[in-house]
Write a structure and sequence with these properties.
- A 3-stranded mixed sheet has the order 4-2-5.
- The termini are far apart.
- The longest helix has 19 residues.
- The radius of gyration is 18 Å and the shape is elongated.
- Helix 1 crosses helix 4 and helix 2 runs antiparallel to helix 3.
- It is of the alpha/beta class.
- Helix content is about 45%, strand content about 15%.
- The chain has 4 helices and 5 strands.
- It folds into 2 domains: about 100 residues; about 35 residues, no CATH class.
Length: about 140
Amino acid sequence: MTLTIDLDVVEETAKLLYIRALKILPDDIKLGFAKLTQSESDTTARTILATMRENIVVAERTNNLLCQDTGIPIYNVVIGRHVELDGAALKAAIRRGCTRATQEHPLRSSVVHPITRKNEQTSCGALSLSSISISTTARRRCASR
């Protein structure tokens, strides 16, 4: 049996993952900030770290971005066996999702194309899939760098 990928679902998922990556910090990172704050001896540095931690709490509580510098989205795609897939169409669907996230959500697009240096206001730049691999399980992840 062969599974066909629904590219509309890929597009919507790419959009939602990008927004989520910009709004929700993983618990291990928040724990790292807490440990760093506890071990920091410099008063100014502790104050800055406390401000950063409070900003994280406020951003998550109010459903806002953690930082205005949205970085470059990186999508890692792992595909199970027996999947019918057009790689170019998959990349295009992810690009559309990234573009929609930027246009439909208050994201500041600061990403420029690496060759033309043009800001297309999409946050995609020369979006590339950092990895596509075949696996017996399917995982999706978007991270902002």
